[in-house]
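Technical annex B. To support the medicinal chemistry partners, we prepared a structural model of the target in complex with coenzyme A, based solely on the information shown next.
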Amino acid sequence: MDVRPYEPQDEERQSDLDLHFTAGPGIRVRRKYAQLAGHGRMHRRCHTFVADDGSRIVGILSAAIKDVRLGGHSARAAYLFGLRVAPEARRHGIASALHARAEQAARDDGAAAVYAIVMTDNASVMPLTRRFALQPIGRIETRIVPVTRQRPGRVDVTIERSAKTVAQRIDRFFETCDLFAPGPERYPAACRFAMHFAQQGSSFAAVTQSSHSAVLRDVAEFVPACLRPLRRFLDAIRPLVALPHLPAREQTISTWWIGEPVLKGPEAPRLLRDVFRHIHNKAQEENVHWLTMPMRPSDRQYPAIREAFSVGRLARLLRVEACFRSRLLFKPLVEPCAINPERLYLDTRDF
Ligand SMILES: CC(C)(COP(=O)(O)OP(=O)(O)OC[C@H]1O[C@@H](n2cnc3c(N)ncnc32)[C@H](O)[C@@H]1OP(=O)(O)O)[C@@H](O)C(=O)NCCC(=O)NCCS
């Protein structure tokens, strides 16, 4: 088995490296990557390693190199992501070899630390993270809500699409957070980033929205039988009432990612609700099915963000809002290298 840097001709030789996970009410999703190294292209600098068994590519792992804030200073960190090993090649040490290689590349590139995000219920990856001494430092909830048509809010919501302008407006709110990468590099053109914001007096609320569709496609692999009649019923009456979307089997689920919530001033939670109403309506115009947003339960603004993001009682009743729980794992490569778990920035490119 050869573990080596990715080469473009590897695209022709990939085996089954799709990810499978459960979203919504028991809906199994297959995440297909358009290209092996596609996700890495969201980052200005990224190393991707593959495991080559001589005929097929049977494993992959990437390390995005980011210039971030760490312990209040500028530092370099590597985000390890996209680890997959083909089912028939598992338990032969491939993931361990890929991890060792990626960590070495991070050191060689001057990274002071590596970090990764793993789902809490992914038992197969936890021993690996322990073996490489990655420490859990924070909890993340990735919430999914179905797009629904909404009554317009009371305030006007503005959209800004220039990466430079968005960075100028957003950076100051996160510049003291650890793992924050300043500047417009957070908004690669392929992700079609936009900032949606509302202002009233001294209050301000904003989020950024992006799409990963240039890189990956989520396909509904399994929809529980009990939901199928419900989906047909919802589809039949949808023109009359605003109802959440349930995917059909084999349907591609189109998702917008939401991140970088900013709340400033006493009216901000109300403004944020209006921003989300506006995003739902825009998403519906563009046939987007789900909105996904990573958030940190330890963030002091978490209750307001979570409340504003929820699409309300009907969706909860139909159990079509979903939540993935994951852990942020961190490992310093040089001493001392501090991180403040209470002030962490979540980058939507990392999900
Ligand atoms: C998780 C995954 C990458 C592991 O790949 P792998 O090549 O089988 O991992 P390794 O052979 O290097 O295993 C390292 C250790 O992890 C543990 N481990 C791996 N798979 C495991 C499993 N299914 N159950 C329990 N422990 C497991 C073992 O302790 C193993 O060491 P051992 O075989 O000496 O006992 C692979 O199962 C996979 O691709 N899963 C689907 C995608 C995924 O979950 N990616 C991680 C996203 S964060």
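Notes passed to the chemistry partners:
Residues 2-139+328-350 form a domain with the Aminopeptidase fold (CATH 3.40.630.30).
The helical segments are 94-108, 126-131, 163-174, 227-237, 268-285, 302-309, 313-317.
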